[in-house]
Amino acid sequence: MSRMETDSLLTGASGDYGSSSGTEDRGSPCSRRMSYSVARQSCNVDRAPGDEELYLQQAVVFIEDAIQYRSINHRVDARSLRLYRWYYSRICQWFLGLTIAVLLLLAFVERPSSLSISSDPRFRSPAWQPPCGFTESFEIVCLLIFCLDLAVKSYLIGWEEFRKNKWLIAYTAVIVFSVIDWVLSVSMVCDERLRVRRLLRPFFLLQNSSLMKKTLKCIKRTLPEIASVILLLALHLCLFTMIGMLLFAKNADPKRNGEWELHFKDFSSSLTSLLVLLTTANNPDVMIPAYSLNRAYSLFFVSFSVIGTYCLMNLLTAIIYNQFRGYLLMSVQTSIIRRRLGIRAAFQILCCRGAERAAEEGVAVDVMLNVMSRVQMKSYYRAAITKEAQQYADVGYMEREQFRKIFDELDKDRIKEHPPLPGYNSPVLQTLQNVFSHYYLTILGNAVALANVMSICTILVLNSDKSTADRDNYIMEIINMCFILYYLFEMCLKIFAFGWKGYLSYRNNIFDGFLTILLLLLQITIYIIYKLPYSQWDPSSHGVVSLWEMMRLVNMLIVFRFLRIIPDIKLMALVASTLLDLLKNFRAFAGILMVVFYVFAVIGIWLFEGAIKPPPDMSGLSNSSMENISSNFSMECGTYEQLGYWPNNFDDFGASIMLLYDVMIVNNWQAFMDAYSRYTTEWSKIYFVSWWLTSSVMWVNLFVALILENFIYTWDRSHSCSVTDVERIRYDTSVQLMFREQIKEPTEEELICQLHQHPHLHLHW
């Protein structure tokens, strides 16, 4: 074991790490009142060759931990720090993420394979089935990589921390179980029906993301509060089910039994009908038979919907988000403490790195600048922190509070400064530059783009009844050519006014310029292939691609280019910014939903693979011939068979994902539930209801609430800004920043207490 693991890292004059007092301090709880006078004590250490460099490395790693909200409870000797930085490097983490993605994507290739053009059993050709050992080879390589990942993590945090970490213990168990199941699968020549390890694969995605683990923990804590409302919802459902069975009991007159026959024949069908009505998927179909007899029956269904759909369901959404938000705040509080703790540890390391000066003098500015030059972080944050640190160059050092405040730059918005305009000596060129750099040129360009889109729309409407072979593409081609030449002219004017660097500093210019160049290349290609087309000329036999197909691609790009107006309209710019932030910063929430999709899809394949098969006389029939099917197979209106939902099945992983998505949308989801209950058993409804509760009721509503929270956060910060300011300011929204104002800062005593409990960093004050 290295010297830094056995000796005190930062010792007092005695250097007695093994003393009972030192051990007692490290094990003391943070709730205990302590009298620290850190800023006023000397910090003398025993210096050894290379220690100075080691202390700088430790400070660099602690600052990187603070930036990424990582725990600092890891080994701090030189070799471990090198391994730690390599493990959290971009390449290593990207490779680990790629390994997880490969393992999860194996479900599309494994038996039953999803490698077929159609999932419809009527038209589906036999999918390619990989030979035994093909996917298993990829799988065992991924598992070996996970073993290496587990070994590195365990070494870096040490055995004591490993025993306390439930996620790493579970990680070990999942890997061991997966390897055992893999061995059994290979020994059975891949002929087993159930691969239990497929159900455990999403765990590798969960354990690799700290935010996913926090999110899952918050959801777990929210479940007891959700259960009370779901119980009330179930009571409401059962109460109206019994009332409905009493209202729509079987009548002696067969003509008055429509409601009973279709929806209230028994308790199971009554409960299912009202459960579907709770999602409005079968409204007003469920009440039409009764409503046609007596309009007063509508009061029953309206009362059920108002209480259940509009009151209880929305109340459930509010409770889910309110409780989840509270627990999420607690998790974010932990992240903020990690950041403050990492910064505090770096300060103490740099204070006591071996210099023979009192600790109250703080951190030398030149040392701080040296450390920041080594930290792996975004360049604009490094520049901002370095600029703040240089303000103390005259004093020569920074005190603890000053050291902490310079890292507040991490929580600030990035303001992008555009390069200065190029200078021209000629007065004429200067005048033209002022004209072409004006905002009105962008407005004119947007108006021209709108005119282009409207012309395409007009021609499409006029030619909507014509086939592609009968359309006159000459007029549209000439119109598009004129607009594309204007786009090229506008781009050249902006480059003249702003210069190349200034032009490319605007994101909308990059988008606009790329599409303009692409449209120009396509236009040149059209003229090379078709020369100069003239009216009444049919080029369909000319070349590999017809003129219509080329024109269609050009028109699609022109319509897509019209999105350039988004940055010029403040509200649209904020909405687009919110969507981009969701893609970047809310991947953890989407990842949890993907995990749920994966687990339910695997279970669905186990339960329902091959359960629904079309009748033999339907195989190979086209959709247009479905009306001519013989009466040997009758299809009731609104059923799975009559609606032609055959491609939605659990016959492979890809089809299962699509079916679960359709159920999550809750449009006609009762058709799937009814079909699988008829083809298998009534108990199959439990599967679909569980998926509806998990995806549509809880997770989708939670995701929508977070979208609103993110948008409100962005709007509150930018409502007073102009369109230009919105374009310049890069809002780096994250979960931590969204709830930043509601989070309590940790006290100095709490930070010192946690530093004393560090398993590898032994501080003596």
TrEMBL record:
GO biological process entries: calcium-mediated signaling; endocytosis involved in viral entry into host cell
Membrane-topology descriptor: Multi-pass membrane protein
GO CC annotations, alphabetized: late endosome membrane; lysosomal membrane; monoatomic ion channel complex
UniProt keyword Kinase present: no
Chief location of this protein within or outside the cell: membrane
Transmembrane segments: 91-109, 168-189, 226-249, 297-321, 439-462, 474-498, 510-530, 550-567, 588-608, 686-708
InterPro entries: Ion_trans_dom, TPC2, Volt_channel_dom_sf
Catalytic reactions on record: Na(+)(in) = Na(+)(out); Ca(2+)(in) = Ca(2+)(out)
Matches recorded under Pfam families: Ion_trans (PF00520)
Location within or outside the cell: Late endosome membrane; Lysosome membrane
Quaternary structure (record): Homodimer.
Protein name: Two pore channel protein 2
Protein species of origin: Champsocephalus gunnari (Mackerel icefish)
